[in-house]
Amino acid sequence: MSLQIILGDITEQEADAIVNAANTTLLGGGGVDGAIHRAAGPALLAECRSLGGCETGQAKITKGYRLPAAYVIHTPGPVWRGGGQREGELLASCYKSCLDLAAAHQCKTVAFPSISTGVYRFPLEQGAAIAVDTILAWLAPQDDVHQVTMVCFDEKTKKAYDEALANSFAANKSKPESSAC
Ligand code: AR6
Question: Whole-angstrom Cα distance, residue 180 to residue 11?
Fold first, then answer.
């Protein structure tokens, strides 16, 4: 079981499942959502149309079509509205819902983008800490998913996730087996 943080493009990841930072319509958009739909091809949108949208903090799964990944797990993250609208709780729910769905589909490798920290303006450092803590807490008691990768699209995002992971290690020195980098 491990969490790794890399710089890269999620559409190129050869994971069992990649996660899409979607919106509640699940009908595509810009950012990583647009990149995933472009790389997967039009059959992905056709399947998404059949799903009836998705609530913020929840997740739905489709096939990966032309992507190297077998599945795409779509999750609408919260739009940042100052922090008083349960944004942190909803962001944690996105990561947990995706991992639960991945495990239910026997996915052993899962790649995430940095959910909500782009167009949805969730503060990067805070979003990274929530992502890392939620993923490590999920990985700790079970081995359904062996490898989780955070795919950061730029250096600034990677630095924030590297720091969040280092902070998590520092806070959990007594539990060194809980993760690896
Ligand atoms: N691979 C990995 N990460 C990427 C890629 C890529 N190919 N492209 C962008 N990112 P955003 P959000 C990073 O805005 O904030 C869409 O229109 C990006 O640099 O894609 O959750 C949806 O339809 C940033 O770090 O997602 C929604 O309407 C991160 O992915 C809305 O945007 C997330 O940025 C969702 O906003």
Answer: 24
Tokens of 111: 């790649």
Say if 181 falls within a structural domain: no
Look up the pTM and report it: 0.95
> 118 C-alpha to center of ligand 1: Å?
5
For strands 109-112 and 147-152, give the pairing: parallel
- Nearest protein Cα to ligand 1, atom 34: 118
Average pLDDT, the chain: 94
Ligand 1 atom with the shortest distance to the CA of 157: 25
- Interval between CA 173 and ligand 1 midpoint (Å): 32
For residue 115, with 0-12 CB atoms within 10 Å meaning exposed, 13-18 middle and 19 or more buried, which class applies? buried
Two tokens, residue 121: 């303006």
Residues of the chain with pLDDT under 50: 178-181
User: Are residues 45 and 27 in contact, defined by beta-carbon separation less than 8 angstroms?
Assistant: yes
What is the residue range of 85's domain? 2-172
Domains of the chain: total:
1
Residue 57: both structure tokens together: 């903090």
The one catalytic residue in 9, 33, 144, 162 is: 33
Q: Which of 48, 75, 119 to mutate to test the pocket of ligand 1 (most atoms within 8 A of CB)?
A: 119
